[in-house]
Amino acid sequence: MKRFFTMLPDITRSLFRRPVTENYPAVQSETPERLRGALKWDPSTCTGCGLCVMDCPAEALELTVLDRKAKRFVMVYHVDRCTFCGQCVMSCKQGSIVMNNQSWELAALDRNSFATIFGAPEDVKEALANKPEDGAAKSE
Amino acid sequence: MPDTAASKRFTVPIGPQHPALKEPGHFEFTVDGEIVTNAYVRLGYAHRGIEKAAESRNWVQNLYLLERVCGICSHIHGFAYSLAVERLANIEAPPRAQAIRVIVAELERIHSHLLWMGVSAHEAGFDTLFMYSWRDRETIMDVLEGLTGNRVNYSANVLGGVKFDVTPTQADIIRKGLTFLEERTKHYLDVIMHDTMFLQRTRGIGVMTRSQAEVMGALGPTARASNVQRDLRVEAPYAAYKDFPVQMVLDTRGDLEARFEVRINELFESYRLINQILDNLPEGELNVRVPRRIPAGEMIVRLEAPRGEVFYFIKSNGTDKLERLKVRTPTICNMTSVVRLSVGHQLADVPMILAGIDPCFSCNDRTVQIRQADGGAQPNGLSSLMSWEELRQYAIRKYEAR
Amino acid sequence: MSTLSALFAISIFPGGLFLLSSGLLYEWGNRKLLALLQNRVGPRWFQPLADTIKLLAKEEVIPTGTNKFLFIGLPMVALAGGLTAALYVPLAGLAPSASFDGDLIMVFYLLSLLTLCMGLAGTNTVSRFSLIGATRTLTQVFSYEAPFLLALLGVAAAAGSWQISNITAYSGQHWLILTQPLGFLVALIGLMGKLEMPPFDAPEAHTEIVAGALTEYSGRGLAFFHLGKAIELVIGLTLIAAFFLGGLSNPLWFLIKTLALLFIMVVLQALLARLRIDQTVGLWWRYGVLLVLVQWLLMVLL
Question: How many domains does chain B have?
């Protein structure tokens, strides 16, 4: 039997409803709870084991251990390299790393802002001073 | 144009940049009017050196590298790799993890098949079906995003298990999505089976007989549409497929219509399977610890990806890096059928036949392609392309002469 | 007709500016409605205009191996054909600005000029996609032209005149869709074939032959062809609405009737998969011609 117009029900329904396309910047749907967004790192629970750095497939993490006992760590997180796989969250036994499901609009106009530096201000200063090649890499 | 034999042969190039192919691959179709008289394929435009790159990364990092072999069936690559590594390390992921892996694999199959249906409909100029199937595919994308945290590269696997649990709330969301999709899929099955205009483009086009399919080594739904019983989930069940068997979907006709029907009927099977697993999800741990150094050895893992069999070979030398990796994706096996089947068809059918195998060029661009040069003779008097038998005879001669 | 009014007719209304802008708006209507039927958002109202401006501003690349004169001239001829045809058509429900006995045939051929020019433009280039596209375009012309013409001539025969103004005057009193439903159907689908809309878009099937005959065109030439097509859409809709839907007595009726026709065309576009070129030819010669002949037979018998 010949049948034409099999999709007629769909298009009639569509005539009386709004397009499904999300009007994105104006209307934003809620992000799922598990969405893997940019990292957050908590230095207070970190032990400086460096597993996260070792397992990161994109080399997006740099951890500088200044003083393990005093918990003086500096973490540089390159969000532009991050593939949001979540392996660092799995690797961290202390749960110091979490992925923030709210921060996913990560575009930026200048390159430097892609590196997020976690840590106490004085530690950051010291860590960056000790690693000149890191600073050079960022300014290129 | 000079009046030579070459100019009389009219070849239509499709690719590496062409609106029909969203990925780079080169096809040359010699046409006589609208009829294709000869076809030629050249692949390798998207070679990324993933196998070599895997040798310089540690076992954990490779998981995410290999997940990016394919954008559509990303989970199956992570699945295959972690299964291979776990078998090498002689550990087994907990049952709950195995079940969750299968859930994600089946969700991925659903999204891949819906995507394929849209693409094929688009190649046939049926854009309404394309738009609607992709609209409904969003449901599964949202489900996957809510379940795993990402829409494309789900990263559901870790070595030794999975990253996340399926909570009862999640299960309800999945069930709801599947109920909606089941309704829609019934409608699409009706469309592709009965729409006269669409059937004109699919029925009797690109017919591959069973023996052809076997000779050409077709895999996955492409082979199953030609009644080749080849589905690793049934033949060699792995992970949770052992406890939750699937029914193989077969068709005897072997044309494009059969490929449509096989894939859509596989959707129903996936819906049923996911619901069954969700209802009987094993309790227990989500993952087990995997040592950083994997014992030396070799391992082969074959899994059923949405497009067919995915083959993984891993060789470990006992360090924290692997020594050799070999990946073979189903598209490369099905590509022969495109070249063979398009001969004798109209040029207008060629994109449909090509789309019919659900090609994924970037996944398959890993192998060495041998081009048959005209004459093809090498300095040592051998042909550049030998059949298996020729190669065997050559080897016998060579060793006898020693 | 004084020089001034002739100039007005050519450059402002109904030719020229009015025709171009209405053509672009109808093209937008086509795209927007199709998008709505597919549950999408679709383009904004000025999108066809923006596309045209962009194309006009772009560099025109003339590929090697083509006849430059033809390459530049064909789009102009195509557009000119459409613009000229508009003078004989009751656009916006107003009387045509020019008229003579037998202008129906002329309008018909002026409309075919666009397709012909596209075919020639395709064969003029050495691109293989263009050549196949041109072959398909010309093949398609031969398939739908005869039934389309026969369907329109059915109306002319009923009105007893070959002059569009006389025919519209006659059809203003009679809803010919009631007496010639088959002719209406063939004319409407013939128009879709003429405009290479789905399902008759095999000549420009982009999944096979990129953009068909116009693959090598860029910039101004492409813009002219697009404008020509947009104009042909308006003229074709006007003709069919005037002939079959009880004439176009005023601009409001014009708008309502042509939009109704456009809507039917969009629904058909949304619901039908693309035909292969052999299927197109088969469809027209097997069913299209048959339908029109049955229509003529009925007219003769009744």
Answer: 2
